[in-house]
Write a structure and sequence with these properties.
Length: 431
């Protein structure tokens, strides 16, 4: 069974809580704050593993969660960081946000990593909140929640050359002849139900990967004949080898039909280099078959196609065709090497003391003296402190004051004594 898609749920570990503690040493009965910081929660990391071929294991295991960071301890001892979870996937796996369908990462190279869900930062212990006016803070910061999301993993084979053609056109036979791959071969359509990869070594310096793509039929772009499952696997191949059996009825018409399917799936696919391989050259033994093949070859060449007569059984004509394919592969590799790599954007956890952006300040429902403040930063801020603690509430109020939020509230029309809803917290506004 070949599984090339899997949906998984990932969650970074929550950060450990900072704690409230005070020094209690001999001769120092009223020592200062000594609560340790909480440890960071473990990440969920997806890595491209060269030894993985399918996503079948992930289709059976949907939930992946990083370990929670340990809480801080007294004497300023920091809690241990939570262990990260590493998820191995095949090279060529794309990661999408399930809800937005946005592509998060494209793992094209061996051992490439992507942190799909970051663990929450550990909370700060009470020593961080001491000041000249507050010598013994009785509150600490709670650990941040880890990121949580549902992602879709989609595998696209990474092949330099895609072998295409009708079912039973000889693709599996060819890939076994030019590489060490040993695909299942039989004399009936759709023998190949999974793409087969083979490494083709022309010499020490010229090596490429060929993919035997299961047979395409009319309507493949609509899903007919497992079309959707396999059309996407040819999207990354810079060159196609189109196998044509000259002894099948309507060989040229079938060639046009398959190209039509490629165009309907992705228009740009039809513009890629496509070598035509007329198979079974070893069976062209008489004048009649020679004339048949000659006429077919002329029709392909009239369309500007490069045509090769080959036989996988006798190795006839394979080398010139493979070297020509290698030519196009090298062009693509040079283009990719010269292409400027996009810089990775690293998201960092914002400092709670940094200025906060107000998304909206609006009257709450129809009330004339009730207001609602909405915005992600506030949710993160409130989530880091125990709002039942009076000292913690005072600290949050001072953050709002230093960041200019209180002034913005006044400018919006909030007056003394008005009830303000901030997340799940409700308080009377005081200047």
């Amino acid at each position: 069974m070949f599984v090339d898609e899997a949906t998984i749920e990932v969650k970074g570990g929550d950060g450990g809580n900072g704690i409230v503690a005070f020094r209690r040493e001999k001769y120092m009965p009223m020592g200062g704050p000594s609560g340790g910081d909480g440890g960071k929660g473990g990440d969920v990391v997806i890595i491209a593993d060269p030894h993985r071929k399918t996503l079948i294991e992930l289709s059976r295991q949907r939930h992946h969660k990083g370990e929670r960071g340990r809480h801080g301890e007294g004497s300023r001892r920091k809690g241990r960081e939570g262990k990260s979870v590493v998820i191995p996937v095949p090279i060529g796996t794309q990661i999408f946000d399930k809800e937005s369908r946005e592509m998060l990462a494209d793992l094209k190279t061996p051992h490439q990593k992507y942190v799909v869900a970051r663990g929450g930062m550990g909370g700060r212990g009470n020593p961080h909140f001491s000041s000249a006016a507050r010598h013994a803070p009785k509150f600490a910061e709670m650990g941040a929640k880890g990121e949580e999301k549902t992602v879709l993993l989609s595998l696209k084979l990474l092949a330099d050359v895609a072998l295409i053609g009708l079912p039973n056109a000889g693709k599996s036979t060819l890939v076994s002849a030019i590489s060490a791959a040993k695909p299942k071969i039989a004399d009936y359509p759709f023998t190949t139900l999974t793409p087969n990869l083979g490494v083709v070594k022309l010499d020490a310096a010229h090596i490429f990967v060929a993919a035997d793509i299961p047979g395409l039929i009319r309507g493949a772009h609509k899903g007919a004949g497992l079309g959707h499952q396999f059309l996407k696997h040819i999207e990354r191949a810079p060159v196609f080898i189109h196998l044509v059996d000259p002894f099948l009825p309507h060989a040229f018409r079938n060639f046009l039909a398959i190209n039509r399917e490629l165009k309907m799936w992705r228009r740009e696919l039809i513009e890629r280099p496509q070598l035509v391989a007329i198979t079974k050259a070893d069976l062209i033994a008489d004048d009649e078959t020679r004339a048949l093949v000659g006429e077919l070859k002329a029709r392909f060449e009239a369309r500007g196609c490069e045509v090769f007569e080959i036989s996988a059984a006798t190795q006839t004509g394979l080398e010139p065709m493979l070297w020509r394919a290698m030519h196009y592969v090298e062009i693509e590799r040079e283009r990719a090497a010269n292409e400027q790599q996009e810089e990775a954007v690293v998201l960092t956890t914002a400092n709670v003391d940094a200025p906060l952006e107000i998304v909206e300040i609006a009257r709450f429902a129809d009330g004339q003296s009730e207001w609602e403040i909405s915005g992600g930063p506030f949710q993160r801020l409130l989530g880091r402190f125990d709002m039942d603690n009076s000292e913690a509430r005072l600290y949050v109020h001072r953050i709002l004051q230093r960041s200019g939020v209180l002034v913005q509230m006044q400018n919006a029309g909030v007056k003394y004594g008005d009830l303000v809803h901030l997340g799940e917290l409700a308080f009377e506004f005081q200047e």
